[in-house]
Specification:
Layout lengths: L9 E5 L3 H14 L2 E5 L2 H10 L4 E5 L13 H14 L12 E6 L5 H9 L4 E4 L9 H11 L8 H8 L5 E2 L2 E2 L6 E10 L2 E6 L2 E6 H17 L4 E2 H4 L8 H10 L10 E3 L4 E4 L3 E6 L1 H4 L5 H17 L1
Parallel strand pairs: 1-2, 1-3, 3-4, 4-5, 8-14
Antiparallel strand pairs: 6-7, 8-9, 9-10, 11-13, 12-13
Length: 308
């Protein structure tokens, strides 16, 4: 992390006007925050590849590269889209894990503000920052609260969640280090089966176990992990209550800020890629009284064995 040696929030500031950078440095210092400032789209993208930031303050009119002289609106708009493409994930309150506040001297022009909010920005503030009726420090506090980052101790976890989940190979995510492990023990009592997530133990009823096994199977068999709700058992186009019930059983056992599942907003679900798949006790599950559970266990175990 950029500020790995200090327990302080760090902002990425993309702004080509040194006077604004100095103003922000003073305001963030009073908040107890650090910042890294660059004037161009090219440098901002390089920093995002090299490190992690707690939030981003983005001017709309910035330089394309450090060698260009004229700031362009298109550079800021393109950078906004690129950042949100790299960090699209949302938390369980449906807020972006990495918040972007767009700054602009043209913020009073409503079309610009609307465009930014529709293309990945989380808030919009006018320059100069002393414009009546707005407070940049208040907006920063709100963005940290929305993204579950009020304590900087949560930032490394939230940043792992915020990254684009790509390149998933079986049950491992190449773009993010798994933070927890999910294991299914198989021991059944009163039609409930034992599950361990992290260091927490719980039991699931049979219908929730079937859903969980389908999600696990999608992870280890297909790689990407997405399963459409019809395949999970939904019989209509409305929201799928089965996932809500499963989430209500598992979410209380997860640390704050880590959602159990992701929803692509198009009817498909998957287990949060930051949750790794651990032991699946096939020797017990293969004797389960429900054939679908036996078959899913066989499918998962076969895929894991083939993966080596």
């Amino acid at each position: 992390m950029v500020n790995g040696k200090r327990n302080r929030h760090v902002a990425l500031v993309v702004e080509d006007h040194q006077g604004v950078v100095d103003d922000l440095a003073e305001r963030l210092h009073l908040l107890g925050h650090d910042m890294v400032a660059v004037p161009s789209q090219e440098e901002a993208l390089a920093l995002l590849e090299a490190g992690q930031f707690c939030y981003i303050l983005l001017d709309l009119q910035i330089l394309v590269t450090s060698n260009t002289r004229i700031p362009r609106l298109e550079a800021g708009q393109s950078l906004l889209r690129s950042i949100r493409e790299q960090y699209p994930a949302r938390n369980k309150q449906d807020r972006h894990c990495l918040q972007i506040i767009v700054m602009s001297g043209f913020a009073k022009e409503m079309p610009d503000a609307v465009w930014c909010l529709q293309n990945g920005a989380d808030d919009f503030i006018a320059k100069p920052f002393d414009t009546p009726g707005q407070s940049i420090t208040a907006k920063i506090g709100e963005c940290l609260q929305r993204s579950s980052r009020t304590s900087h101790a949560m930032c490394p976890i939230v940043m792992e969640l915020g990254k684009k989940k790509s390149g998933i190979v079986k049950n491992q995510v190449s773009a993010a280090r798994p933070l927890l492990q999910l294991s299914i023990l198989g021991g059944a009592q009163w039609k409930r089966t034992g599950v361990i997530i992290g260091d927490k133990e719980l039991t699931l009823p049979d219908f929730q176990l079937v859903l969980l096994l389908k999600l696990v199977a999608a992870r280890v068999v297909s790689g990407h992990g997405w399963v459409h709700k019809i395949s999970l058992g939904s019989k209509d186009d409305a929201g799928f209550k089965g996932i809500a019930y499963l989430n209500s059983s598992i979410q209380p056992f997860l640390p704050d800020g880590i959602p159990f599942y992701e929803n692509d907003k198009q009817g498909s679900y998957r287990i949060n890629p930051c949750i790794a798949i651990g032991k699946i006790d096939h020797e017990v599950l293969v004797r389960h009284r429900i054939s679908e559970i036996r078959n899913l266990s066989s499918e998962i175990t076969g895929a894991l064995a083939a993966d080596g």
